[in-house]
Description:
10 helices
Amino acid sequence: MTLQQLLSPTRRAIDEYHMIADGDRVAVGLSGGKDSVALLYILAGLKKFYPHPFELVAIHIDMGLKGADPKHKQGLADLCKELDVEYHHVKTDIAEIIFDVRKESNPCSLCSKMRRGALNNTAIEMGCNKLALGHHADDLIETLFLSMFYEGRLSTFSPVSYMDRSNVTLIRPMIYVNEADIASFCKDKPVFKSACPADKNTKREYIKSLIASIKKDIPFVKRRIHGAITHPERNNLFDKCEKFKVEIVKSRDDNE
């Protein structure tokens, strides 16, 4: 998988949802995992020829995880230097709060909120008006299943979300990129394994395994689910029934 092959679907998403405009200063949440590393390569490559000039900043939120690779920090700094991207390393005590103080049995939700808050605050300090995250097509599908199974809602994340409290817009440029393609691209890239104790032992991993199981019988299932999410005109849910009921009531009132 080449950078050009990842650039094509990413640029399509950026153009369709107007993610980047002239003069934007875009912060990338750089964890060091394959998704964030791929996103940094993609946006650094796009920056060279995109018709809307923008600046790029990489932010790594150091959670203070025990057992983290000591080469991690320098490796990310070297990557950003190679790609000519401004780099910021932010130390936090997120891991201590979650695992030692609160002793969370299901830490993912709180961890995500705290990391996102730290990213958002740093992006503001760095003068960024956009924050790019490395969520991809598989994440989009898995989030829908998580919402249905555990919350009883039909919901997933948006490609673009404006956060009015901070005046920062959250963008997810890789929503049309498959995780397998990202993994293929990153085989020879500086990717660091997560030191999180909950890694590979989450509800999302269960959903990932479930979808992989379904794919054995329905090979194209991910494409169909992704298409259903990104083409809302195909939806046929009860909200249309509610609209119909309102129209009937209004019609009766008009005739009385």
